[in-house]
Amino acid sequence: MNVIASISTAPGIGGIGIVRMSGKDCFNVLDKFFRPKNKQKIEDIKGYSIKYGFIIENNEIVDEVLVSYFKAPKSYTTENMCEINTHGGNLVIRKILDICLKNGATLAEPGEFTKRAFLNGRIDLLQAESVVDIINSKSEREMKTSVKQLEGVLSKKIKDIKQEILDILVNVDVSIDYPEYDVEDVTNNEIFNMLNNVQMKLENLEKSFDSGKIIKEGIKTAIIGKPNAGKSSLLNSILKEDRAIVTEYEGTTRDTIEEFVNINGIPLKLIDTAGIRDAKDEVEKIGIIKSKEIAKDADLIIAIFDSSKELTKEDYEILDIVKNKNVIIVLNKSDLKQVLDEKDNNFVNITENIIKISALNGEGLDKIGSIISKMFNFNEINLDNEVIITNLRHKNLISNAINNVTKAKNAIQDNMPVDIIAIFINDILEDLGKITGETVTDDIINEIFSKFCLGK
Ligand code: GDP
């Protein structure tokens, strides 16, 4: 393949910047403008080695650099690759990229290095997609899951299921090839059982998406309560426990901000925390209407009440908003003289998830994490051992595959001809092949890689 080049470090000023090239002839391109301190013939340079030298243009030194060499097939793309480590200024790094392009490299498209790793067979599509997930990880849990996916844990699982289906097809072929032996009844039974087994495995994977979605997107959580109940204090205590807020970006509507936090390793995407923290007057003004709106959108509502005071009209309105919702009732200010308690029917009638806390001194905060864990079946131990689907594309393909298993099973039960059964079984294989990338169209491949950043 032709030589591609790209800046692989983020734009801006940094200690170093990296320009990367990949392609059979990339060392020849490099040779035209890199003057190493100890020059060696290209053939003699070892893979995984680094050379010190200068980038030269028109007989002038552009920068002092280190170049890492990776020789095919032992590189990210499996092609010859080099990485030029420059001093990390915008200007110098752009200049070096330009020099690469002038000397025969073409500018890489977003994700093209990873796409080459996929097209050259080093990783499958699923692993390639996990690279984006690692880069975009917002929590350690998400990163861990993505790294596991890159290692091929999910790929192996899919491969194993595919092998089972191939075994089923062998049985089907026996029926097709030797109809005179009347083996159909026996094999149909056997095929049916094997399909059941595959279905169970696929359904487990499909189900894992419940956790996978949470890992990737966080539980969309709203904290609601009347003014002075302690919303901001609760939020601040959560943030204090977990200083690693990874992203803060605009939510789906213009006036909401979404923020990621982790409670006991469970990622929460808090809705409208800016509203809670900064626009207090605003919230007071539009109070209940706003709470209703936020609650409508949330996977989880934390409804907070001041337990040192009698319930007010606003509290009752909030209770009304959260009934029939996924809610945790938090009775805040446990450090003060208590007026409300967990056994109060106003709360018990709505949910069993009622806790007392003090946002002020942190008492009871840990209970929030364990309740969420329970509510969302988010069990840490399982997460470490299980293979988890986090990508909607994969989930949809697995659902399709399950559909085709059902069709094949129905066809058997309806005594359909065996070649019809074979068609459905082949469809299952195709669905799974689309996950790992063997049976996927170029359009989809291009779409997947277009989501990558430049230089990856
Ligand atoms: P918000 O309007 O719901 O965001 O409420 P704030 O978090 O701003 O809290 C309102 C007042 O209650 C502040 O003066 C807080 O210091 C106080 N407060 C919040 N939580 C507690 C608590 O657990 N105990 C006590 N004693 N005071 C609290």
Search tags:
3 domains; binds guanosine-5'-diphosphate; 7-stranded mixed beta sheet; 456 residues; Four Helix Bundle (Hemerythrin (Met), subunit A); alpha/beta; 14 strands; Rossmann fold
Structure description:
- By secondary structure, the chain is of the alpha/beta class.
- It folds into three domains: 4-108, Probable tRNA modification gtpase trme, domain 1 (Gyrase A, domain 2); 137-214 and 391-439, tRNA modification GTPase MnmE domain 2 (Four Helix Bundle (Hemerythrin (Met), subunit A)); 218-380, P-loop containing nucleotide triphosphate hydrolases (Rossmann fold).
- The chain contains 17 helices and 14 strands.
- The strands form two sheets. The chain has a seven-stranded mixed β-sheet. A seven-stranded mixed β-sheet has the order 9-10-11-8-12-13-14, sandwiched between helices.
- Helix 4 runs antiparallel to helix 5 (140-151).
- The protein is flat.
- It binds guanosine-5'-diphosphate.
Our count of domains comes out at 3
CATH superfamily of the largest domain: P-loop containing nucleotide triphosphate hydrolases
The structural class is alpha/beta
Largest sheet: 7 strands, mixed
Nearest-integer average pLDDT: 87
Ions and ligands? guanosine-5'-diphosphate
Molecular shape: flat
Helix fraction?
A: 40-55%
Radius of gyration: 29 Å
Distance between termini? 17 Å
How many distinct helices? 17
